[in-house]
Design brief:
The chain is of the alpha+beta class and about 400 residues long. The protein has helices at about 95-105, 155-160, 165-185, 240-255, 275-285, 295-320, 330-345, 350-365, 375-380, 385-400; strands at about 20, 25, 30-35, 40-50, 55-60, 65-80, 125-130, 140-145, 190, 200-205, 215-220, 225, 375, 405-410. Helix 3 runs antiparallel to helix 7, helix 5 (about 275-285) packs antiparallel against helix 6 and helix 6 runs antiparallel to helix 7 (about 330-345). This is Protein kinase domain-containing protein.
Length: about 400
């Protein structure tokens, strides 16, 4: 994929802890089985919860030990022999195709020529096809992405007693600016179609070393569609496994499934993503009783203004299927002003320093650790179980949980 300015900063890169002793042996500090992927170029660092469409792991480059996110599609594609990206490669899955389109957008809006645009969406590093050994004409799409080292916005809110108002305003500003580029800088709008808190990723520039505020990146474009694509194919659940997928969606979102606002009615265009995002954010902040904190009234006024803009978009979407959503740059500018005012009041507070330290600790807990190892405890076998039995258990687990191309090696 073409380089883009919104790539996650590579300063103070996240690293994994391991030492390769031979082609079949790695030192991690744990006795068991480790997993290599992409022909031994990466080692599985951590298995994380995937979504309806993909299995997901964090992996480490075996030479540089830098961390990346690996995704393997649960849906299989027709095998083409592609090892993209290349000038002739046409990605099969919508996520990579949409992101390639976004990376080609000019970062200039004629209505706001003096505004410097910096959209933030996740960056694909590489992708390729892994053939299915049982079905030679089918393949799984495997992709590698730059890592956001702070988890998701959902985790950030759940794991902190208080998220500073300045940080929440910063998040809204960056999300609004990114959506504005998606809607207004291309030939036609691109809708994310699944923008909830777990699809907004947190990245701490400088990693665990500095007291920097986090940045927020939009990710998981698997349901994304352009304005001209059919709205019918954006339904969350599909096929015979709809009940299972609905349950998986509920587990991922921690709430009962309901048809999201991304699905338009016949004769209308898609609703924009900001309404879905803000609805979940406001619900989470209400549960945290954020209204008691100083400065929250400024954030509440910002949310009210965005709600008015959402009402305007609802009328536009109903009346004119060819319309674009309202501009979001004014809202991004207002959010940055709220951030500046709130920061002046918060930066000397103990709670603000505690929040920054929690962020650095989250980075440390993710990065300064050995790779994932399948050991005797995970296999639930007696302590004296032969290693070959543990290895067989690990391979059975990997078949269901990893996807794509992988092999196992001994870990000590």
């Amino acid at each position: 994929m073409s380089p883009n300015i919104n790539a996650v900063s590579s300063d103070n890169k996240s690293m994994s802890r391991f030492t390769f002793l031979s082609d079949n042996l790695v030192e991690t500090g744990k006795d068991g089985v480790a997993f290599l992927v992409r022909g031994g170029k990466y080692i599985v660092h951590k298995v994380i919860t995937g979504g309806v469409q993909n299995r997901v792991q964090i992996v480490a480059d075996v030479h540089t030990k830098e961390l990346f996110v690996r995704k393997t599609s649960k849906k299989q594609f027709r095998y083409t022999g592609s090892h993209g990206p290349s000038s002739t490669d046409i990605p099969v899955d919508d996520e990579i195709r949409i992101l390639e389109s976004l990376n080609s957008f000019p970062l200039r809006d004629p209505k706001y020529p003096d505004e410097r645009l910096r959209p933030r969406w996740i960056t694909c590093v590489r992708y390729y096809e892994a053939p299915d050994a049982a079905r030679g004409n089918r393949a799984t799409r495997v992709s590698y992405w730059k890592l956001c080292n702070g988890g998701t916005l959902h985790d950030l809110i759940e794991k902190n007693d208080r998220v500073p108002v300045s940080v929440l305003a910063r998040c809204i500003a960056q999300v609004c600016e990114t959506l504005h580029v998606m809607y207004h800088c291309g030939k036609e709008p691109v809708y994310h179609c699944d923008l909830h808190l777990a699809n907004v990723f947190v990245h701490w520039p400088g990693g665990a070393a500095y007291k920097n505020k986090p940045d927020f990146y939009i990710g998981d474009f698997g349901y994304s569609r352009t304005a001209s694509q059919s709205w019918i194919d954006t339904a969350c659940c599909y096929g015979a496994a709809a009940a299972f997928e609905r349950r998986q969606w509920e587990l991922a979102h921690d709430r009962k499934y309901s048809e999201p606002p991304r699905v338009a009615q016949p004769g209308c265009r898609r609703r924009w993503d900001i309404a879905h995002f803000l609805g979940i954010l406001a619900y989470k902040l209400d549960r945290k009783r954020m209204g008691r904190h100083p400065g929250f009234n400024l954030l509440k006024e910002l949310l009210d203004e965005l709600q008015k803009l959402d009402d305007k978009d609802h009328k536009l979407a109903t009346r004119d299927p060819t319309s674009k959503p309202p501009p979001l740059l004014p809202m991004a500018k207002t959010a940055r002003e709220v951030e500046a005012v709130a920061l002046r009041a918060e930066r000397d507070m103990e709670s603000y320093d505690a929040f920054l330290e929690n962020g650095r600790e989250a980075v440390r807990s993710l990065t300064y650790r050995p790779p994932f190892v399948w050991d005797r405890k995970m296999s639930r076998r007696p302590a004296l179980t032969p290693f070959e039995v543990i290895k067989q258990d690990a391979m059975e687990w990997g078949f269901h949980e990893l996807g794509g191309d992988w092999t196992v090696i001994r870990s000590v």
